[in-house]
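User: For a benchmark we're assembling, each entry needs the component sequences followed by a predicted structure for the full assembly. Here are entry 17's components. Please fill in the structure.
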Amino acid sequence: MTQEPKELFKAQEFARLAGVTVRALHHYDKLGLLKPKQRSRSGYRLYSPRDFGRLEQIVVLKYLGMPLKQIRRLLEPDANLSQALQRQQAVLLEKRRQLDRAVAAIQGAQYSFAGRGEPDWNLLKYIVQEMEMQNNTDWTKKYYSAEAQAKVETRKPLWSPELQERVSREWATLFADVESALGEDPASPKAQELAARWKKLLGEFTGGDPQIQQGLNAMYADQSNWPPATQKAHAIKPEIIDFITKAMRAAR
Amino acid sequence: MTQEPKELFKAQEFARLAGVTVRALHHYDKLGLLKPKQRSRSGYRLYSPRDFGRLEQIVVLKYLGMPLKQIRRLLEPDANLSQALQRQQAVLLEKRRQLDRAVAAIQGAQYSFAGRGEPDWNLLKYIVQEMEMQNNTDWTKKYYSAEAQAKVETRKPLWSPELQERVSREWATLFADVESALGEDPASPKAQELAARWKKLLGEFTGGDPQIQQGLNAMYADQSNWPPATQKAHAIKPEIIDFITKAMRAAR
DNA sequence: GTCCGGTCTGACGTTACGTCAGGGTCAAGC
DNA sequence: GCTTGACCCTGACGTAACGTCAGACCGGAC
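Assistant: Structure for entry 17:
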């Protein structure tokens, strides 16, 4: 008899030890990611402590959000873990940026009003479009130097609760101010000042200076195209966004 | 003739207008999420401006990370948008917390050494396990008051580049210090001080005070169970973690 | 012998489409 | 009238990481 390892575990026990499910073990087995050391005569999976070490690695890498395919490659003897971790981190950071944008959009729409009543569909749509544009305008990142990139990364403020409340209040007052200035000339200094405040505030949660999409005001102005659910959730008048858009265009 | 809307769009044009793919339109159609106003005799989908409004909503809600099923419910006339947004935000924030933990784990393992050489598997595993435990120990959140929760939320520091560098340096010196103290009694004041530093540093990126898992040192100590890939990526000696674990246990 | 808990192997369900495959449609040019 | 190229249609399979049955076998206890 060759010297057998001290212990072998059946599926359930083994799974509990590592904090995964039996089904996951089946899955990893089928993928060739983790095959049990042996099978019993009746076909039961029997895992060794060495298998446990491998499973632990899988669990850790999975925690870092890596896909199983990549994990399999990383568990090969000649894999470059350091590089993989670095890349994975970049992936995670990008995902987080996207999450931040979504969170900020909701924040903006939800708490922009002092009353904290209904979120505003128009504003939500507007913010999301701004962010998508900013996203697409990220050729800056691709074409500018690494240093510029680093600066961009650093500048990101990441909504603190304090910032959030402050911005929330500022939105509320800004809306009120714009509403009372609706009759003004969009090119007037007063309108320009409002537009500047708007732009600045938008920058607070888009994380960069926003580019204003030109053709949207028509969409916002014509409510007839809105499906019913949208029409209910309206606290901000389209005129407000319309006015601001015009004012910004006037500033060229 | 009844008054027809001014325009009808075929799939591609319509898709381009809204920034989605034709295939997505097919998908939404099949799901009943967005059915074109009409079909041509030959079966072509013909979308109206009103459909465009609906599609815009879909795109916005999708940007916020909502699943299509929920979006469909939200587009019904009696939906509660505000509530849905609030819930969605909670979902996003939770996801972001998870991302943060993963990022921090990589940071910790990757940059813990001054040399920035290889990441350390042991430390990585350790950190991840800490975080999982902290995750499971989140009954605090469930059972404590909302105010306590808010404080927890607020406290989160969110790795700034500066913090990251500082922590990175502190890890490096801490490892060196522990290594030179390996012969000491884990209960000695010196060891205790090291353990305290360790605990504090761990807290920096786990975002809370860590709970030390008792049964791990055996695992860390016995390298024979580690699969080959792991053994390469080792800069930190298991003795270091072993020592710290003992010191912390000695502190009871 | 039987019962209960554990294990096995398929196989379908999930999410939001991407990607063919096979086959009509439409307007333009010859 | 015919071809051509751009577009449209409807399946149907693939993706990631398992969850969730379903049907059948195994192993120890009573």
